[in-house]
Every structure is written in C-alpha cells, then in structure tokens.
Amino acid sequence: MNATKYIILLLLLPLLFGCSNDGINNNNRYLPNYGFSVDINMELPLYTNLQFTGNPVYIDQAGVGITGIFVMNTGGGYVAYEATCPNQEISECSGMFLQGITAICPCDEAEYNLFNGQSTEKEFPLKQYRVEVVNPSVIRVFN
C-alpha cells in the first residue's frame, strides 16, 4: 500500500512543478488575462522594423491583447507587452502610445521602458507576453 502512494506521488510531481512561467509575472489587478496567439511575419513591410534592435512595433489586431501589443527586438531576443496602461482601471485613455523605445500612458503620463517594461514611478510594470521564434522571419506572441 505504501509503495502505491509513493508511485502516485512520483507521477504527480511533474504535474505540480513542471509548469513554467518563463519568469513572467502578470499579476495585475487592473488588467485581465485574455488568451491569444499571433504570428508576426517580419518580412511584411508593417513588421520589418522588428529585424533591427530598438524599433518597437504596435500591433492592434482584433483579439490581440486588450488594446493591442508592443513588440520589440532587444538585440538579445524579442519582448512583447500589453499596450494598455498597467496602473489604472481600463478606460477611454488606457491605450498607450510609442515614443522611441518608450511606451507612454496618456491618462497619467507614466513612461515605461520597452527593454524591460519598467517605470521608475509606478507599482506595476507593463504586462509582458511570451515570445517564441518560429523561424528566422516569424515570431509568435502569446499569453
């Protein structure tokens, strides 16, 4: 009987500890977690900036993020963030805009660095999404 318990425990351990969040913490009381997946073909003119470091792109396809996403090549990989202000309830002014490598929230004028998603003055960083390189010209962003 004891051997059966140990076998069951050994079988359950990978399920309990096998999930990974890739170091992404998306616990934000203001922003809901909507599931999505989008493939970005960097050979298309709209996304060619992603082939170069420090050139973010705003993607506002329906069903991608809350108000869209920002994607950027950091030189060491790609990052993707929600384009909705992370430190307040969703409202008419929640859609952020880009200024260089900075995302700016028009509601409170908070600025967020797109290399790391951080703001020096706010509680929550930008909501980060997972990025997977499918092949040299296609990346997938998903939640």
Automatic annotation (TrEMBL):
Gene3D superfamilies membership: Rieske [2Fe-2S] iron-sulphur domain
This protein's name: Rieske domain-containing protein
Keyword set, alphabetical order: 2Fe-2S, Iron, Iron-sulfur, Metal-binding
Start and end residues of each Rieske domain: 43-140
